[in-house]
Write a structure and sequence with these properties.
130 residues; single chain; 46% helix; mainly alpha
Protein backbone atom coordinates (compact mmCIF):
# COMPACT_ATOMS: atom_id res chain seq x y z
CA UNK A 1 0.00 0.00 0.00
CA UNK A 2 1.27 3.48 -0.76
CA UNK A 3 2.00 5.51 2.32
CA UNK A 4 0.15 8.62 1.13
CA UNK A 5 -2.21 7.52 -1.68
CA UNK A 6 -5.52 9.34 -2.04
CA UNK A 7 -7.48 6.43 -0.56
CA UNK A 8 -5.07 6.25 2.36
CA UNK A 9 -5.39 9.97 3.05
CA UNK A 10 -9.18 9.65 3.03
CA UNK A 11 -9.05 6.76 5.47
CA UNK A 12 -6.53 8.56 7.68
CA UNK A 13 -8.76 11.64 7.77
CA UNK A 14 -11.73 9.49 8.76
CA UNK A 15 -9.64 7.81 11.47
CA UNK A 16 -8.51 11.17 12.79
CA UNK A 17 -12.12 12.32 13.00
CA UNK A 18 -13.13 9.13 14.83
CA UNK A 19 -10.14 9.43 17.12
CA UNK A 20 -11.01 13.02 17.93
CA UNK A 21 -14.56 12.00 18.80
CA UNK A 22 -13.16 9.19 21.00
CA UNK A 23 -11.33 11.80 23.06
CA UNK A 24 -14.50 13.75 23.83
CA UNK A 25 -15.33 13.83 27.48
CA UNK A 26 -11.72 14.39 28.56
CA UNK A 27 -11.15 17.54 30.61
CA UNK A 28 -9.32 19.29 27.77
CA UNK A 29 -8.57 18.56 24.16
CA UNK A 30 -5.49 17.35 22.35
CA UNK A 31 -4.07 19.91 19.97
CA UNK A 32 -1.84 17.37 18.18
CA UNK A 33 -2.93 15.07 15.39
CA UNK A 34 -2.99 11.35 16.09
CA UNK A 35 0.17 10.79 14.06
CA UNK A 36 2.14 13.70 15.52
CA UNK A 37 1.22 12.50 19.03
CA UNK A 38 2.35 8.99 18.08
CA UNK A 39 5.65 10.27 16.73
CA UNK A 40 6.21 12.37 19.87
CA UNK A 41 6.01 9.20 21.97
CA UNK A 42 8.59 7.24 19.95
CA UNK A 43 10.97 7.35 22.96
CA UNK A 44 8.39 5.20 24.79
CA UNK A 45 8.34 2.46 22.18
CA UNK A 46 10.44 -0.05 24.17
CA UNK A 47 8.37 0.50 27.32
CA UNK A 48 5.03 -0.21 25.62
CA UNK A 49 6.03 -3.20 23.48
CA UNK A 50 3.99 -6.30 24.32
CA UNK A 51 5.49 -8.20 27.29
CA UNK A 52 8.32 -5.68 27.63
CA UNK A 53 10.07 -5.61 31.02
CA UNK A 54 11.74 -2.31 30.11
CA UNK A 55 10.62 0.65 32.25
CA UNK A 56 9.99 4.00 30.54
CA UNK A 57 13.15 6.03 30.04
CA UNK A 58 13.58 9.61 31.18
CA UNK A 59 13.19 10.68 27.54
CA UNK A 60 9.91 8.75 27.36
CA UNK A 61 8.56 10.34 30.55
CA UNK A 62 9.58 13.82 29.38
CA UNK A 63 7.85 13.21 26.04
CA UNK A 64 4.74 11.92 27.84
CA UNK A 65 4.54 14.97 30.10
CA UNK A 66 5.04 17.30 27.12
CA UNK A 67 2.34 15.50 25.15
CA UNK A 68 -0.21 15.64 27.97
CA UNK A 69 -3.07 13.47 29.15
CA UNK A 70 -5.63 14.39 26.45
CA UNK A 71 -3.26 13.38 23.63
CA UNK A 72 -2.27 10.16 25.40
CA UNK A 73 -5.96 9.33 25.66
CA UNK A 74 -6.41 9.99 21.94
CA UNK A 75 -3.66 7.43 21.27
CA UNK A 76 -4.85 4.72 23.66
CA UNK A 77 -8.46 5.12 22.50
CA UNK A 78 -7.53 5.33 18.81
CA UNK A 79 -6.92 2.60 16.28
CA UNK A 80 -4.68 -0.29 17.34
CA UNK A 81 -0.98 0.43 16.91
CA UNK A 82 1.18 -2.48 15.79
CA UNK A 83 3.80 -3.33 18.41
CA UNK A 84 2.11 -1.33 21.19
CA UNK A 85 0.37 -2.89 24.16
CA UNK A 86 -2.50 -0.52 24.92
CA UNK A 87 -2.56 -1.53 28.60
CA UNK A 88 1.13 -0.78 29.00
CA UNK A 89 0.63 2.59 27.30
CA UNK A 90 -2.13 3.42 29.79
CA UNK A 91 0.32 2.66 32.64
CA UNK A 92 2.90 5.19 31.42
CA UNK A 93 1.52 8.14 33.45
CA UNK A 94 1.80 6.15 36.69
CA UNK A 95 5.26 4.77 35.84
CA UNK A 96 6.43 8.27 34.90
CA UNK A 97 4.69 9.89 37.89
CA UNK A 98 3.00 12.26 35.46
CA UNK A 99 -0.12 12.67 37.61
CA UNK A 100 -2.56 12.26 34.70
CA UNK A 101 -6.13 11.14 35.26
CA UNK A 102 -6.92 7.73 33.75
CA UNK A 103 -8.20 7.72 30.18
CA UNK A 104 -11.82 6.79 29.69
CA UNK A 105 -12.10 3.98 27.18
CA UNK A 106 -14.40 5.07 24.39
CA UNK A 107 -13.41 3.05 21.33
CA UNK A 108 -15.93 3.13 18.51
CA UNK A 109 -17.10 -0.43 17.65
CA UNK A 110 -15.29 -0.46 14.30
CA UNK A 111 -11.97 0.26 16.02
CA UNK A 112 -12.44 -2.23 18.80
CA UNK A 113 -12.67 -4.97 16.14
CA UNK A 114 -9.18 -4.06 14.85
CA UNK A 115 -10.60 -2.97 11.49
CA UNK A 116 -7.59 -0.71 10.93
CA UNK A 117 -4.12 -1.02 12.38
CA UNK A 118 -1.50 1.73 12.47
CA UNK A 119 2.04 0.44 11.93
CA UNK A 120 5.13 2.27 13.14
CA UNK A 121 8.14 0.40 11.80
CA UNK A 122 11.70 0.42 13.11
CA UNK A 123 12.60 3.39 10.92
CA UNK A 124 9.61 5.35 12.32
CA UNK A 125 7.60 5.27 9.08
CA UNK A 126 3.84 5.16 9.58
CA UNK A 127 1.48 3.07 7.50
CA UNK A 128 -2.11 1.90 7.81
CA UNK A 129 -3.53 -1.56 7.24
CA UNK A 130 -7.12 -1.77 6.10
Amino acid sequence: MKLFGSRTLSVLFALLMLTASAAEGQTSTCTSTFFSALVQLIPCRAAVAPFSPIPPSEACCNALRALGQPCLCVLVNGPPISGVDRNMAMQLPEKCTAGFDPCASSLPPSMSKNAHIVHLNSTNHLSLSL
